[in-house]
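Lecture notes, unit on protein representations.

Consider one protein chain, 291 amino acids long.
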Amino acid sequence: MDALIANARFHFHKQLFETNTLTLTTAGIASNADTSSRGSKAIARRIVDILVEEQHHAVSTVDKISGQTLGKQFETLTMEFLRETFPYLQNLRPGNWTILQLGNNNKLKTSDFAQYEHLAYLNALTTQNAQLAAALGNDYLVAPDVVVYRDLYEDSEINAAQPIVDDEICKMADIRKSNGGKPILHASVSAKYTMRSDRAQNSRTEALNLIRNRKGHLPHIVVVTAEPMPNRLASLALGTGDIDCVYHFALYELIRAVKEAGSEDAVETLETLVQGKRLKDISDLPLDLSV
């Protein structure tokens, strides 16, 4: 494999095995399967078997890893995949790009970006005023799992080829560093190892908050997941207006696994998602972010 994204995808799957994120229990149940669902267990196990064939890599047997640990590891690997791919698409989308894993423990929040800096002021007001806090709530403060943001340009960089700006004009342009602005949020990536019950809908809530509370350009809003069940993928992927698209960590393997181990309904649901361009493979994500 000479293609950059193909190599990165292969490495991403290899790291899932090596970090004990994608594992099997002694009973042969994959770590991304719902133990209470026969269909989920069958499809997830088939995906693991296919990836083992592709990777020529043994899968670890681990009986107990917390969901929180798996989620954090999946976030980290998603961030690393984007770091290995997106910054190298300068011919498609030039820029000074930074890709970070945020989460709730990181000091960097959406208010640290140009489109959302007003939220810091709003948060300060609600902290001081309980009535205002009760009226507005605090769901406007979002901490995406992974962010891609664009650093600002010095005037010397903007004017490198020819004079573009001077001191008299472009005084409020976000991308100009001399205007004293903040970095521009390019993409918000929600990394969900699985989609259990209502937890998957957190991604939709975050998306709606990003859409509703922004000033200026809307960033890409995407979800990356290893969920094996097509009906659970559909609960988040179907519909438009909030999330750009859901990206599966191994869509090609999922399609094969569902055909071999899933029900007719599962096959039909997956076809609907793929043909409707609501579910793509993780390899599509870097190129989609270049738009």
